[in-house]
Structure formats: structure tokens, C-alpha cells
Amino acid sequence: MQQTFILFKPDCVQRRLMGKVMSRFEDKGLNFVAMKMLQITPELAQQHYAEHVEKSWYPTLEQFITGGPVVAAVLEGLDAIRVVREMLGATSGLQASAGTIRGDFSASRQMNLVHGSDGPEAAAREIALYFTAAELCAHEPTITPWLRAADE
Ligand code: ADP
Ligand code: MG
Question: In the prediction, which pLDDT does 62 show?
């Protein structure tokens, strides 16, 4: 079982697409174990996107991600990190395949609706950046026996 961090970015909140996107994750069988709405500060943006802070386009990313409320969440499931990244699609909505979240709802390389951790280290770091251990509500959904076989 693996946990991954996702963020409904300000464009997703403003465009009222959160419900649709959440449904996709739930329909897939992923389990929400934490969620909160917040406004990202420039300081938090710099920590979250530490790998991009030196890039020429970082200032526009910071302006975007701090420009409205976001919803941060933790998803749990088998191979959740890879599965969520594949559900998101390529970074740019113009490149992302049809059928992916970005491919279906985004026409931008910046306003691509949802962030997802890109590996186990990033997931652990990002979950800890937004949530305390006490805020993670691990639980076993009663529907689990109908989502996968017992030995998977
Ligand atoms: P991903 O979110 O797919 O992991 P990156 O880590 O490359 O993508 O970039 C982080 C975020 O920065 C992207 O999701 C997107 O919102 C934004 N971004 C990426 N490339 C650019 C760019 N060239 N100009 C502006 N914003 C960008
Ligand atoms: Mg990335």
C-alpha cells in the first residue's frame, strides 16, 4: 500500500472541477486519507517547488499557485504514486493524452489542475509539508474486497 500527495491547484478550485477530479480518483479505487483547503504562501510554494525555484518560469508558477485557495490531499492505494501520475497525464494539458485529467480538462502547461508526487521521496516530503501524522486518517474501506483480490 502506498500513499501519494495531490494538490487541487487554484485553477481546479476556481473552475469547479474538484468534484469531477475527485470522482475519478474514487472511481479508480484510490482512498482519500487526508484533505484540507488552504492558501499557499510564497514560502510554502518555494518549499513545495524547491526543485524549480531557480527556473526562469518559477515566478509565474509561484504567482499561480499562491493566487487562490487550493485543496491538499493524500491518496492511498496499490502503486498510488505511479497510478496517480498516469491519471494526471503529461505536464502540459496540450501534450497530455485524452482520457487523462490534464488531457481532458487542461489546455495549458501551467494551469494543469492537479499536482501529484513524482516518486516515493517526493511523496513523503510533500505529505509532511502539508500534513501532520495525526491528520492522516488511515482506514480500510468496507468495499475493499470488491476492489481487488485478497492476494493483490
Ligand atoms: P509536473 O507537475 O508534471 O511534475 P513539473 O514538475 O515539470 O511538472 O512542473 C511543476 C509545475 O510547474 C507544473 O505542474 C506546471 O503547473 C508548472 N510549469 C511547468 N513547466 C512550466 C513552464 N515552462 N512555465 C510555467 N509553468 C510551468
Ligand atoms: Mg514535478
Answer: 98
Question: Is residue 139 annotated as part of the catalytic site, yes or no?
Answer: no
Each domain of the chain, given as residue ranges in start order, spans 2-146
For ligand 1, whether the C-beta of 120 sits within 6 Å is: no
Q: Which residue has the cell 474501506?
A: 141
Question: Is residue 117 in contact with ligand 1, taking CB distance under 6 Å?
Answer: no
Atom 1 in ligand 1: residue holding the nearest Cα: 91
User: Which pLDDT does position 86 carry in this prediction?
Assistant: 98
Question: Which of 111, 134, 115, 135 is closest to 123 using CA atoms?
Answer: 115
Q: Does the beta carbon of 92 sit less than 6 angstroms from any atom of ligand 1? A: no
Ligand 1, atom 17: nearest CA belongs to which residue? 110
Q: Using CA atoms, how far apart are residues 34 and 20, in angstroms rounded to an integer? A: 18
Nearest CA to ligand 1 atom 21: 110
* CATH number 3.30.70.141 given to 2-146: yes
How confident is the model at residue 45, as a pLDDT?
Answer: 98
Question: Can you give the pTM of this predicted structure?
Answer: 0.97
**Cβ contacts of 50 within 8 Å, gap of 6 or more:** none
**Which helix (DSSP H) or strand (DSSP E) does residue 23 occupy?**
helix 18-28
Single-letter code of the amino acid located at 47 = Q
